[in-house]
Amino acid sequence: MTDADDYIRALVAFTPLIEPVYRAAIRKLGLPAGSHGLDVGCGIGLQTLLFAQALGPESRVTGLDISPEFLGRAREIVEEAGLSERISFREGNAGDLPFGDDSFDWAWSSCCVGYYSAIDPLPAVRELARVVRPGGVVAILVWSSERLLPGYPMLEARLGATTPGIAPFTEGKDPGLHSMRALGLFREGGLLNASARTFAGGAHAPLRDDHREALASLLGMRWPDVEPELSPEDRSVYRRLCLRESPEFILNHPDYCAFFTCTMFNGTVAG
Known about the structure:
By secondary structure, the chain is α/β, with parallel strands linked by helices. The chain has one domain: Rossmann fold. It has helices at 3-29, 46-55, 68-80, 121-130, 153-160, 163-166, 182-188, 209-222, 232-242, and strands spanning 36-40, 60-65, 87-91, 104-110, 132-147, 191-204, 257-269. The chain has a seven-stranded mixed beta sheet, with helices on both faces.
């Protein structure tokens, strides 16, 4: 099994927990029914599917991703949902979109443009604006916080300060390029009426089976390969709390409670 296969499985497992956040953000955008939009960095197409469902039978959504493995799974998911006629996918780079000017009514990107460190955010925001018609909407959603280890705030803070913990941001990077400074990127990109809104998701004990699996996947995705940067003491506690094979796995605690937030930035393309 490849790393891509493992990551796809983790994304699918995380869906029951993150999907309400995505749906709330889509509702907040207030996009017109029947519109044609672009999902950049669509991954396995879960949000692409949600947009098509939310915007009605006349809508069309195009998903774009650089990974053929992700796109292959995305096509399977859409076909299983019976929406292949309204959803299409294309391989491509967020920094050089393979579409003409004014091709879409709106464009969206989650944890990609403005978030993924390999993509220069300002040119990518300008690309999103370029392919959206005047008056249309550009929106990006970024992971903004989490509290997953109740009772262990110091360990969680130290995990958050590791290289995996602060990824995709890196030490020494221009603060103006941080994902939570996207209002400035939108203004520099020529978008009007830039705004931000934060959405929260979470779960608490007793955990539903699907939420338990989602949180277990999130713990693995949030701090991957973190152990080399931990002290021996923190490494021991991390293994005890965060590895699902541990008898003290934190999701087994009867008082478990966790939350996470995603922040959406959106603006309007100038006429």
